[in-house]
Amino acid sequence: MRIHVDRTRCANHGQCVFAAPGVFSFDDDENLVYDPAPEAARAAEVARAAAACPVRAVTVEGGPA
Ligand code: SF4
Q: Where is each 4Fe-4S ferredoxin-type domain found (predicted)?
């Protein structure tokens, strides 16, 4: 599974961080950081994060192995 965040769309609102805190977080400057290749066990929370993003900035490729 690969994740991509379109930073031209992302507004750092953080819904993805609430939905999948093991994958998405904010750095000390409050910029979004994320694991671009999370383990398959995180597929459900990644899907919730993608669905939660109000600007549809999160793209997920591939599924659980
Ligand atoms: S929910 Fe979407 S807009 Fe908000 S921080 Fe995450 S990727 Fe960015």
A: 1-29
Q: Which residues pair with 32 in a beta bridge?
A: 26
User: Would you list the domain boundaries of the chain?
Assistant: 2-61
Block residue for tokens 């459900």: 44
- CATH class as words, domain 2-61: alpha beta
Q: Cα of 64 to ligand 1 centre, how many Å?
A: 22
The alpha carbon of 15 and the centre of ligand 1 are apart by a number of angstroms equal to 6
Distance CA 40, CA 51 (A): 17
